Structures are given as C-alpha cells and as structure tokens.
Amino acid sequence: MKGIILRGLKQGVSVSWTLGKIVFPVTILVTILRYTPVLPWIIDFLTPLMKVIGLPGEAAMPLVLGNALNLYAGIGAIVSFDFTVKEVFILAIMLSFSHNLFIESTVAAKVGVNWWLISGIRVGLALISAFFVNLVWSGGSDPAQYGFIASSEVELTTWTAIGLQGLKTAVIAVLQLSAVIFPLMLFMQFMRESGWLDALSKGFAPFTKFLGMKENTSFTLVTGLTIGLAFGAGVMIQAVKEDGVSKKDMILALIFLVTCHAVIEDTVIFIPLGIPVWPLLVIRFMMAVIITMIVAFIWNRAENRRRSRLKYEY
C-alpha cells in the first residue's frame, strides 16, 4: 500500500507540474487583460454577431468573460444585465460548450491535438447550438429571475494591484488544480494496481466501443465527464504512459470531452439563473456522442482504405 501511495504521489507531482506550467501563466495573462481595453474591444467587435444568434450586444460581455476566465465569471456578468429567459438559456448553452477556453484547450492540447482544432470545435458548437435554439424556440420572452446570486467585481485601479490580483488568482488556480490532481492520481494508481481499473473499463466497454474507442479509455472518459476537461486531460496524459491508450483513442476521447465534460458542475451551476437545465445536459451529451461517432467512422473508413491499398500494392 505504501508503494502505491508513493507512486501515486509521484504521478501527482508530474501531472500537477505539467498542468501548472500552463495554468499559471495563462491565468495571470487573462486576469491582467480583464482590466485593460483589450476585452472591451473584443466585446465591441462581437456585438454585431450577437444579433444573429438572438442576443443583445451586452451579451458579448458574459461570453467573453466566460471564455477568457471561467463559467463563474460568465454567470457573474449575466446577472449584471436584464436578459430574458431565452437569452439566458442561449448564453448558458454557449458557455456550456465553450468556457475557460485558453486554459482548458491548452491543457487538452498537451495530449497531442491541435489547440485551434479543440477551440474551433468548442466555439463552433456554441455558435451552432445558439443559432438553432434561437431559430426553434419562440418562447422564453419573460425576464429571467436570478435567484439569490449576485455579481461581484473587484475594482482595481493600479497596475501593481492588477498584477498582484493576477498572481493571486494564478496561485489559487494551481493550488486548486493540485488539490484535485493528487488524490485523483492516488485513486488512479490504486485502481490500476488493484485491478479495479480493468473492471471499470470492462463495465464501460460497450459505451466506449459504441463511440469507436477501446475499453482502456473508460477511466479517462469517466473522469472528464464528472470533474472536468483539465483533470480529464491530466488523467489522459498519464493513461497514455501507463495504460497504452492509442493516439486515435486519445484524440476521440478528447473530442468527446471538449464537447461534454464536468456535466454535473457545469449543469447545476446554471440552476440559479432560472432556466431549464436538463436540456443543457441532453444537448451537450448528444452532441458529444454524435460528433465522436462521426469522427470515429470517418477515421475507421480512412484506415480501412489505407490497409486495402497497401494490401493491393503488396
């Protein structure tokens, strides 16, 4: 048991260091940018696009903050404005697909998938889903009721204060990441050495096979679905080393997780906004399944054609 703990802690240090090198500088940069003219300029640039997806110009604020920072920043911006139920739902579905874009997509890219592809999938799904929700849903014109949550904004007036705020935010982000990574790596090591990981993989084998992946990707999918993309990527990095997950399965799992991750937290967090949250979960999950299956199908056909061509040549 002592050996398992030591090996798990060693993995925790390795993964935390790998992810921390990304999270720390990106968090500082984005936090500082929040107090510069850059974000307001981006918001002004996006305002014309808002009308196409059924949103007013001020809706660009929660979208920019949610993508640059996290869901909590996006929600904090939402409650600063008087939106309708439909507008809040559109914002929620967009932020469900695309949030914390810089950190989560960069961390996910560490497993070998292009950052622009990951970000493009997330932003594309956000825009497509918003367009169709606006097109299909004719109701939701009542003012949204935000419950007990309220917006909170730190007023900083000097570059020193802004820099310190960025440093503080970055340190807290890394500590929070490590606080989850260490027990997760310990748990993963115990599951692997006790044989439970194999049992879990077999239990989820039908679902992973349905998505076009092998059963040894099950733990990665479960982790990403329950606690988030960054942590799922951390497990994936380790799984590639320890469990022999192929590059193909790694990429398919990542495509699934960039579309649908942290389904409990990312769904529950929108409840105080007074919108129906079950459709958020269903839309995200179904889109993840459909996109992953399509990519797997195309990939398998390409591989079969390549094998047939090589067989014919020989």
What report would you give on this structure?
This protein has helices at residues 2-33, 38-52, 60-68, 71-78, 85-97, 101-109, 115-136, 159-194, 196-203, 205-210, 218-227, 229-242, 247-259, 263-268, 278-313. The protein is an all-alpha fold. It has one domain. Helix 3 (60-68) runs antiparallel to helix 4 (71-78) and helix 6 (101-109) runs parallel beside helix 12 (229-242). The longest helix has 36 residues, at 159-194. The model has no long low-confidence stretch (mean pLDDT 80).
List the helices and strands and how they pair.
Blueprint: H1 2-33, H2 38-52, H3 60-68, H4 71-78, H5 85-97, H6 101-109, H7 115-136, H8 159-194, H9 196-203, H10 205-210, H11 218-227, H12 229-242, H13 247-259, H14 263-268, H15 278-313
Helix pairs in contact: 1-6, 1-8, 1-12, 2-3, 3-4, 5-7, 6-7, 6-12, 11-12, 11-13, 12-13, 13-15
**Count the strands?**
0
Mean pLDDT: 80
* Rg, Å, rounded: 21 Å
Helix/strand/pairing class, anyone? mainly alpha
Query: How far apart lie the N and C ends?
Result: 52 Å
Instruction: Write down the overall geometry.
Output: globular
Summarize this structure briefly:
This protein is mostly helical. Helices cover about 75% and strands about 0% of the residues.
